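Hey, sorry to bother you again with one of my protein questions. I've been staring at a protein lately and its backbone has me curious. I owe you a coffee for this, so here goes:
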Amino acid sequence: MLKVACVEVKCMVVTAPYAKAVLSCGAVANRVIPCLGYQRTGGSVPLLCCAGVESLARVQLWNKLDAALESRLR
């Protein structure tokens, strides 16, 4: 249960500073659910887990780029 809480906290830390991200809690959960088996038992990281985490990172990157462009246009 502690590992699940850690995943939730990591997701909140990743997404919290980027209020522009249009990701619901459900969308974030769907991206990290494939990671739960790995969190529980270890082993190799599932491809769907990697893809979900990468998609969250892309949202973060796009929001950073968007914020940088907006600040230059002001």
User: Anything to note?
Assistant: Residues 45-74 form one domain. The chain has four helices and no strands. The mean pLDDT is 79.
